[in-house]
Design goal:
Length: about 210
Amino acid sequence: MFDIQNYGSFIAAIMIFQLIPGPATFAILNATSKNGLSAGFAAVVGTLLGDLCFMVAAVVGLAAIMQANPIIFQGLQWFGAGYLLWMGFQLISTKVQSLSTRPEPVKSAWVYFRQAFAVCMTNPKAVLFFVAFFPLFLHPESSRLTLLIMMLHVTILSFLYQAGLVLIGNQISIRLKSVPSAGKIASRVAGGALICFAVKLAIHNL
């Protein structure tokens, strides 16, 4: 669909990545729990803008590689599968941090937008992730339109999930983060799912 290979797996992978607790997730939960919906949605916008910057950088580079050298692109596909495998093992073996719920003075939504944007932009692994992720669901002849459609999918699904965190998931998430076993189980499940995806996509590229 939309010239995206393994479309179902592409959608599922995006959702799995959203479910993995990370700096952006904690920034959104922190903003909402301390200063309400406006702060939470400001953090969401900051997160999405940061991800968009990295996606644009990744897409520009991938478009050039696909046109210039399909063999290098195939190498990126193998690199992507290996990167997902590494991420999976990292999630299984890394300790999960709890979310801080310390009181905080009221701040403007702009402050939380800047904080969330800074969190994303200071995470250099993000651009590496997108460079590794997108090629897994493309073929060398894919057009730039396909890349733009993939970016749109990531942005929309990310917004829906993150808006859910702000609207209904905040209190539940805070309680879960305070229970070490809950965070640990979620991290292990997400890690196992990424390993399965990596193996499946590697086999598909053989």
